[in-house]
Amino acid sequence: MIKYYDRKTKTYQKEKVVGGKIISWTYSSPVGMTFLEKIIKKKACSSFYGWYLDRPISRRKIHPFVNKFALDLSTSEKNIEEFSSFNDFFYRKLKESARKIPQDINSFISLGDGKLLAYENIHMDRLVQVKGITYSLRELIQDSYIAEKYQGGTCLILRLCPTDYHRFHFIDSGYCGPTRKIKGSYYSVNPLALQKVDKLFCANKREWSVFRSDHFGDILYVEVGATFVGSIIQTYTPHKKVNRGDEKGYFKFGGSTVILFLEKGYVTVDRDIIEQTEKGFETSVLLGEKVGQRILNKNKLN
Q: What's the burial of 31, exposed, middle or buried (CB within 10 Å: 0-12/13-18/19+)?
């Protein structure tokens, strides 16, 4: 059972996990772990399932999925009968009115919908995956020069559940560099999997880019693939000016993660999110929701 913090009601809620029993069996039993290592984590498995979810025949999965997880499609650009495949439904766009993007340049916002963890004053060689398991930013992006910039900075980990809106966005105006792709496995990013697989984020397929934001310094975006994620699709154009809230890309089917790294002295994360992270709980957030505040005189923290 996965619990997360609802900051609006100040209560803990139980997450509805897609394939929860299968995930539990896979990552908790010797047979399941063997099956995971030999088949599930392989690219071919996720690619084949992704291929199926791109086909029109997969549309029959949409209604049962919506009903089982009580999804609200009133915010979707398309109605349920207009989707050409399950993936078309899965990475659906939302109406412009569905998410409000605050224009206060001092407000640091969430890049998407999901469950958020946040860490300040990070050590780039001891980043927290879950309690007792750490990884290195150098290993994650395979670039020591870029990694060095984020020593003592801030790390935000947004986990997108399969039931979430699966597009991710820019949190500020600015320019984003090209995407670097790193091949890897396809482990689940479910919290149970994070407890079982050392340095999971460094093992999975991932992509990263540096976003030169206008108000929050150079931000490192890292998109991490997961089980049955057919593709990470980048929709932005490198070196082209973007605005706050513009789309950066999307994931095809599967739970996925976006990790942000910020340089020291640019942002303070909202206290409730930090407190819940320290307690071991993720906080539920939506695209555009304020999750931190710009530090106006960052030299005070240097």
A: exposed
Which range of residues forms the domain containing residue 244?
A: 1-302
Which residue has tokens 């979707």?
A: 76
Among 76, 107, 256, 284, which one carries the catalytic annotation?
256
Residue among 58, 76, 110, 113 flagged as catalytic: 113
Q: Is 169 a catalytic residue?
A: yes
| Residues 238 and 199 sit within 8 Å (Cβ to Cβ) | no
Catalytic member of 58, 85, 164, 169: 169
* Cα(12)–Cα(280) distance, integer angstroms: 12
> What is the Cα 228 distance to its own chain's centre?
15
Distances, alpha carbon 175 to alpha carbons 120, 214, 215, 246, in Å: 24, 8, 12, 11
pLDDT in tens, 169-223: 999 999 999 999 999 887 878 787 788 788 888 888 999 999 999 999 999 999 9
Q: Does the annotation count 113 as an active-site position? A: yes
The question of whether 63 is a catalytic residue gets the answer no
Total number of domains constituting the chain: 1
Rounded to whole angstroms, the maximal C-alpha distance in the chain is 58
